[in-house]
Amino acid sequence: MMPSSPAVDWAAIAATLDDDGYAVAKGVLSPAACAALAALYTQDDLFRSRVTMARHGFGRGEYKYFASPLPPAIARLRESFFPPLAAIANRWNARLGGDLHYPESLRAFLARCHAAGQTKPTPLLLKYSAGDYNCLHQDIYGTHVFPLQVAFLLSRPEHDFTGGEFVLTEQRPRMQSRVAVVPFAQGDGVVFPVRQRPVRGTRGDYRVLMRHGVSRLYSGHRMTLGLIFHDAE
User: What is the pLDDT of residues 188-217, one digit of tens each?
Assistant: First the structure.
């Protein structure tokens, strides 16, 4: 079982997402839970695929997508985060004039994905070493895309690794892009948009396109758990 974690202040997360385009849920995973999750990387039978970033021009480093069924701790984490994120996603869709509605449970949303042929689980572990980085990108795997995702840092900044900052960019209409470097610690989860978010302007809400990545590591090793809520084709 995963050690207990503090409750997430979802009202604060929602407000910060609206203001900044990302929010950090602090101390969700204990150091013991982080170590246990990172140790899964060597158990190849838990994963459906391994991606070497340099081979595809994604950067340097590697990651593995979990196979189904997910490890229980990851399944519980994904299921518990989905309902409050779905409420935020529905509010964002309404602000942008969309009529798409996300259900309250992950199971119901995944049923929608699977009916469209998106049946491959997308939670993943990412592994970086000195010199590795992840190019700016969006995690879109099919027609049904849940608009928010979470990355949990399993390693200790400035102890297990240096460099390797989590980076977000906003591509604003008729303006230069804005960059955010997100400070978060071992066990924290950063919540951020997969593709876009609403921003309040003088004439109402407008869409801002988002990308995310990881800057180059200077030393050590960095492990991350990525929770993506839509499955892949």
Answer: 999 999 999 999 888 889 999 999 999 999
